[in-house]
Amino acid sequence: MRKGDLKRGSILETAERLFFEKGYDQTSVQDILDALSLSKGGFYHHFPSKEAILAEICENRVTSVLGQLKWELFGVKVSPMDKMNLLLRRVNLFERDDAAFAALMLKVCYVDGDVRIREHMRSTVLAQLLPYADDVLREGLDSGDFFVRSPGQIVPIVFGMASDANDSACWILAAGPDNPESVLEIAERLNACRDAVETLLGAPFGSIMLFDPARLVSDYRAAAAELLKLEGK
Fold first, then answer.
1. What DSSP string describes the chain?
2. What angle do CA 114, 166, 195 make, to 5 degrees?
3. What 3-state DSSP class applies to 70?
């Protein structure tokens, strides 16, 4: 690995650690420089801003989480319906086994309202999921799991809806991380989206799962607890 790549990796690793320890807003570029004994010139050679660091951290996280998708989808024998559910659940920020990262994204994108990071995360996730979803849909059409008139058009609509449902869940949790009833509202929103997705895909009622019911409460509560820590509550 080249020296420049090592330095870039060190900046990302240090910045992510500081974001988790201090919070994104409370971490300045100077904090990152001090932690690495790095000059401003050395920093700006690799990144134009703190926002660019967070955007790359998001992209790396998404790539890591979705990196095993090919094996999960095609390495074992699973039905097209199971594959579609696997892909749809990857849109959910909270189904990534990292409550601290979920909370950081909630704070930056939904509490503080950073539209650029939120849209970057959304577009990165969808860009990686949609090609797989196209293949799975066509497989499901052949098997009879799905009934769609315009297969070339429906996948972006379905995954756009799933992403919107994830956004809605994030807004609800960000607005009331200490409200135990928020998880019920989130479940209702996700279930409404599930019904719509089933209709669009021509899938049987109850066949689409946007979240794991057994994990829903624990995942959202863990993210909420981490968010409260970031907000100093």
1. --HHHHHHHHHHHHHHHHHHHH-TTT--HHHHHHHHT--HHHHHTT-S-HHHHHHHHHHHHHHHHHTTHHHHHHTS---HHHHHHHHHHTT-TTTTS-HHHHHHHIIIIIIS--HHHHHHHHHHHHHHHHHHHHHHHHHHHHHTS---S-HHHHHHHHHHHHHHHHHHHHHHHHH-TT-TTHHHHHHHHHHHHHHHHHHHHTPPTT---SS-HHHHHHHHHHHHHHHHHHTT-
2. 155
3. helix
Give me the tens of pLDDT residue by residue for the chain, a chain 233 residues long. Answer: 455 567 899 999 999 889 888 888 889 999 999 999 999 998 999 999 999 998 898 888 888 877 777 777 876 788 999 999 999 998 988 776 788 889 988 999 999 888 888 898 899 899 989 999 999 999 999 999 999 988 889 999 999 999 999 999 999 999 989 998 888 899 899 999 999 999 999 999 999 998 887 788 888 889 999 999 888 87
Question: Rounded to two decimals, what is the model's pTM?
Answer: 0.85
Which own/partner pairs from 1-7 qualify as long-range (CB within 8 Å, at least 24 positions apart)? 4/46, 7/38, 7/42, 7/46
